[in-house]
Design brief:
The protein is an alpha+beta fold and about 120 residues long. It folds into 2 domains: about 70 residues, Winged helix-like DNA-binding domain superfamily/Winged helix DNA-binding domain (Arc Repressor Mutant, subunit A, Orthogonal Bundle); about 40 residues. It has 5 helices and 3 strands; from the N terminus they run H-H-E-H-H-E-E-H. A hairpin with a 2-residue loop joins strand 2 and strand 3. It starts with a helix and ends with a helix. GO terms for molecular function: DNA-binding transcription factor activity. It holds the Pfam family HTH_20.
């Protein structure tokens, strides 16, 4: 699967509010599938499982079986790759601009003090 296809899967997975809510819960701690289902009483277990499958296909969820239970862990690395690709360069530019502004203001204050 190409990198672009993987990114499409991530955006598709995060486009759904239920899946985003599941990710929000999993960022706090791993949960069993039963615990996730209990958090969405309006959805039946099959629907929740379908959402978990989409998250897993996108690489956002890592299921681990322990006995009869399935623990679901959030894998934030795909989101980090998106951040590095689109947000990181802008954040770096903003940080650099703020550093220049700070330097210019400090130099301006020094010039005023030495002129006095």
């Amino acid at each position: 699967m190409s990198n672009e296809d993987q990114i499409d899967l991530i955006f598709k997975a995060l486009a759904n509010p239920v899946r985003r809510a599941i990710c929000d819960e999993l960022k706090l701690r791993p949960l069993t599938t039963k615990q996730i289902c209990m958090g969405f009483p309006d959805l039946d277990r099959t629907t929740v499982m379908q959402h978990l499958k989409v998250l897993e296909s996108a690489g956002l969820l890592i299921p681990v079986r322990k006995g009869r239970e399935r623990f679901n862990y959030l894998d934030a690395m795909p989101i980090e790759r998106i951040h590095q690709r689109w947000i990181g360069p802008h954040a770096a530019a903003a940080t650099s601009a703020l550093a220049r502004l700070k330097r210019d203001l400090e130099e301006g204050a020094k010039d005023k003090l030495s002129a006095s």
